[in-house]
Write a structure and sequence with these properties.
Layout lengths: L4 E4 L5 H14 L7 H10 L2 H9 L2 E7 L2 E10 L6 E9 L8 H9 L3 H4 L3 E6 L4 H6 L3 E2 L12 E6 L1
């Protein structure tokens, strides 16, 4: 594993983070979703959408030197003090399996939104579900099928 650094997202990162997310969706997530589904997601992750998301979450990036190779965010679950949600956890395809995702998860699980929460939820893609399960998350209410958004709802209690 290379030496990676983690820092908070800055608005100047928006273009690079948008490109990272879109590349990952089109390269990795496409294996589990239709092109139409992926391209609908792509629209949400234009730079403006990334900046908006960062405005109401604690958004982090993982860097390999000057290059952003992963990202992830944590925020309140529907405004609740004792519940939080993880969002937008993506790792560039060429960095997957090299510890970047784990580094993002460890960062998010040390964030104040995680530490104050009794329960943390992840709207997990089919693609990432097994990874989150390895990180200790389980199916919410035991429901192990995707919902109407084609996502698994996973959770961890603290």
């Amino acid at each position: 594993m290379g030496f990676y650094s983690v820092r908070r997202f800055e608005n100047s990162d928006a273009n690079e983070v948008s490109e990272l997310i879109i590349k990952t969706l089109r390269t990795t997530n496409i294996k589990d979703y239709s092109t139409e589904y992926i391209e609908n997601d792509v629209k949400r992750f234009i730079p403006k959408g990334v900046i908006e998301r960062a405005g109401w979450t604690h958004f982090y990036v993982v860097c390999d030197k000057a290059c952003i190779v992963g990202c992830g965010a944590i925020g309140s679950y529907w405004g609740k003090e004792d519940e939080s949600s993880l969002f937008n956890i993506f790792v560039l395809p060429e960095y997957q399996g090299k510890g970047v995702g784990r580094m993002i998860m460890e960062t998010l699980e040390n964030d104040e939104y995680f530490l104050r929460a009794k329960r943390v939820e992840i709207p997990a893609s089919i693609t990432a579900c097994e990874f989150y399960k390895k990180m200790g998350y389980t199916y919410k209410n035991g429901i192990d099928v995707v919902d109407e958004e084609q996502l698994f709802r996973l959770e961890k209690f603290r």
